[in-house]
Amino acid sequence: MSESNWGRWGPDDERGTLNLLAPEAVRAAVACVREGRTLSLSLPIRGATSSPAPATVPHLRGRPLPQHFMSVDAGDYAAGARPIGAGLRMADDAIVVTPHGTTTHMDALCHMWAGDELYNGHPAGRVRSYGATRCGIDKAGPVVGRGVLFDVPRLRGVRHLAAGDRVPAADLAACGAEIRSGDIAVVRTGWPLTWEDSPEAYWAGQPGLSAGAGRWLADRDVAMVACDNAAIGGLNERQLADEDLGDDLHLILLWRHGIHLAEMLWLEDLAATGRTEFLFVAAPLVIEGGTASPINPLAIL
Amino acid sequence: MSESNWGRWGPDDERGTLNLLAPEAVRAAVACVREGRTLSLSLPIRGATSSPAPATVPHLRGRPLPQHFMSVDAGDYAAGARPIGAGLRMADDAIVVTPHGTTTHMDALCHMWAGDELYNGHPAGRVRSYGATRCGIDKAGPVVGRGVLFDVPRLRGVRHLAAGDRVPAADLAACGAEIRSGDIAVVRTGWPLTWEDSPEAYWAGQPGLSAGAGRWLADRDVAMVACDNAAIGGLNERQLADEDLGDDLHLILLWRHGIHLAEMLWLEDLAATGRTEFLFVAAPLVIEGGTASPINPLAIL
Amino acid sequence: MSESNWGRWGPDDERGTLNLLAPEAVRAAVACVREGRTLSLSLPIRGATSSPAPATVPHLRGRPLPQHFMSVDAGDYAAGARPIGAGLRMADDAIVVTPHGTTTHMDALCHMWAGDELYNGHPAGRVRSYGATRCGIDKAGPVVGRGVLFDVPRLRGVRHLAAGDRVPAADLAACGAEIRSGDIAVVRTGWPLTWEDSPEAYWAGQPGLSAGAGRWLADRDVAMVACDNAAIGGLNERQLADEDLGDDLHLILLWRHGIHLAEMLWLEDLAATGRTEFLFVAAPLVIEGGTASPINPLAIL
Amino acid sequence: MSESNWGRWGPDDERGTLNLLAPEAVRAAVACVREGRTLSLSLPIRGATSSPAPATVPHLRGRPLPQHFMSVDAGDYAAGARPIGAGLRMADDAIVVTPHGTTTHMDALCHMWAGDELYNGHPAGRVRSYGATRCGIDKAGPVVGRGVLFDVPRLRGVRHLAAGDRVPAADLAACGAEIRSGDIAVVRTGWPLTWEDSPEAYWAGQPGLSAGAGRWLADRDVAMVACDNAAIGGLNERQLADEDLGDDLHLILLWRHGIHLAEMLWLEDLAATGRTEFLFVAAPLVIEGGTASPINPLAIL
């Protein structure tokens, strides 16, 4: 049995939403709304396959990029297709998405583990070709809570962190924000800004939380950690995490504590507001057995 | 130029979010939260392709159903695959989704039109194979507003409406809820309940709003209309809308008034609460040029 | 170790083509060409997703049908897209295919097994999420050999067999064709003709070879068995095979004898020629680790 | 009307196979078989998405690479899934392929054009989102003919051509092979060998036929031209063809003469045999409205 903060059901229990944020926490979160201004914290999904567009969005090297296809569009009518009925014209489409490493997404608790058990003792063998019958993203439930921004580059007076940076707990504390049980820790590294330099600059590695920072957040009983990097913890130049099993950020947060993770957020617009407390909403698609969902997380200020 | 309520930019203007809900409306919407309880209004996405699962979710006959593939899962490790590094195990996946008619989704303003112009005079020719450069779902912006439930079956004392029902404006008015500019009208028909009888029962047609009801909502300047049916308006037994161009619900709401639409919601849990006013949140994926996005809309009570 | 006819490599051997048809057999097969006329034995792949087209091709109920998307087409130019360079216009596309049960295809030897070993003792654990590293369709190699048509409906004087028909070995013998080691047995049931009546007629079950007929062909050391039904053996009304493990056609042919299988061929044009001996060619795509490949098999008369 | 060699039907004619190779040509082609040895001329399709495999096959930079997913595999059984019936275990899969620029494929005649007409006057407007109703790969028909290898690097005594090489007609003539009407010209540049150096080396450009060589082959009335490069003609370092409309290889061969094209073949094994005349077979999948099909072309020696 893991050091579960958020497990509302044990290894023999298959029902319901895992992370049921307490009503009082939701009400308190909603009270964070001051201006009534909504910001999307998402990267765009660019899937036009016969153009360079997909490669213009930050992504981990080698991952299969999104594909977006129009199955009917205005070109069909321009080329002579007849409208529907008395003159109705429509556009229809399809997308192919592999969320990890390619777009803003939320991990399910089944995404990573060690040994034979997922988070909270659920048998790993329940994660098979047809999906994860335990700890899938469909069990995660919507996330509505108090978001707290840890703007680490701002703390350090830099535009973005360096690839080798591993953010210590002391930096999170120094950001000065009060963090409470049930909050969503939103951590900015600024790393997506390097994509503008070149993909190679982005792929040189990734800054991220240190194991100590991960434990610091787990100790404060956050419901979720959301970062603008690709893996919460850092990555080396081979796009791998360096930590051993005891210090791996996914294992600390997701596996031992049942804390959901979201990666590849876009936090530049939020950081520019100077606001560090807001209503945070993430509504993962209810993909049965999914290991993740693309999301468009919101900060409502 | 259409009778645009919500057009913040005209045909020559490519920038920004189209439906920018006013900050005061968002603050007022947030004030609807009383309990702090969050309900998902989404159908599940069941995409396991080597099982009957995809066909167990309500959908329009003949539409390509979601596909969900695990590119790494626990079975690999059970069959002998080596963990990563010192023992990390992961699961990874991909989804293929054609939102219209297959799952809970939000339409972009480019989804339907007549003639050569989209909503608000934008040239239809901008909707091509690589996506819609005008009025795509990426321009829609997140929706955060006051949700108002119109529970028509409850009004009529039935479990769900009949396939041939076209809900008149008088029924919406009789639901008694106050509806204001910027609100999200959430209309329940109960039609997804027929899926439990059989797919054929579901495919017999679909109840929906009448043209008059559509105009009634447009006159009240709603930001969005969200229904649990597949097409807002009704469908006949061939799954087609019967109205002429002047009365088609998509053309009235989406095309003439720039009112976003969401279809195939699951409203049974919300209806059971008896609540008719709540904070409504829909965060479509930022699919550049998309005609729609699957969504997991939320009612926060 | 299975009763392998065609296994050219054993359980520890990972290299090369599995079914290497002997050069003299290929030369003899080529000598079957008399007219110089080529027939395709394939069903069409209809993947236009915003039309009923995909559902108009015979397929097993519930299988995910092919999807075909144009990522650039003439409609784009009609709607104003600029040509490439001085005036070049192009069309580009993508397909999504799940071969089993949806289109004319060839099974890999890894497609079915019992216990923990694939054909010829190869460990089943080598078939994982990233594909089959043993017995994948990439190991099958192209098939070029003497094709022999067993036109069972013609033998019985009927248009097509009945759903419950299980073709006995005696019927194959009665077709009168000489069958030799290395040949490709092409067996016609005529079942695709029922699709013209209705999908429901097609889904009522499927005629197929009996276990005895399977053994009869294995005894004659054929290289491959190709049928116009969906599963070589028959299927009941739930689209399942009825035989026990000893009599299952896939286990007899694929698993015990390493005889490749192809299903869902279109044999009506070939049957109409009256020819029963021809050059047969099937060139599966070299999908590493694939369990099957869509194919366009040829009969060269 | 184009200078069509192979057009068996005109702009108002929608039926049948376009390139109907004459029976006598097929019989003569079959007579090329001497040894009875079959070589695949195809690159592998590597689609395992959670590994670097897809990127290990030569492809044009930026193209969407193949994806291969196992929807059931042995890992499921190792992890506890129950077999079917009395013990049947199966593996099932799906592929996503965008043929142009990513794998060995055959172009349809609708793939490229200039102005408003496809090959032979067919209206370009017939190529829409649902596919090409004229000149699609489904109309191409199987290719069975006399293959003639033009091994240009061998002629020049080099391992492979240089990126800037444009092969003149004189080189084709100097290869010494007799080329006749209906033949398939198989031209080797050796360019795939540069992939072993690095992807960047491969992407530096591509050698190809000159316009003069294209015309030389058209004058000799070949049925098809198949190369191991990505675009028949050469490409510059931006992966674009440099020729003007009059000299573009696709326009000369595909558009003006209705000569089918196949690209990205693997010709190293064939070149090593020293054989220059053989039976060539290409059986494109019957993708209705397709602009191309992945193929596994065969040389039967």
UniProtKB/TrEMBL annotation, chains A, B, C, D:
Domain of life: Bacteria
Native source species: Actinoallomurus spadix
Pfam families assigned: Cyclase
InterPro entries listed in its UniProt record: KFase/CYL, KFase_sf
Protein's UniProt name: Cyclase family protein
Classification via Gene3D superfamilies: Putative cyclase (3.50.30.50)
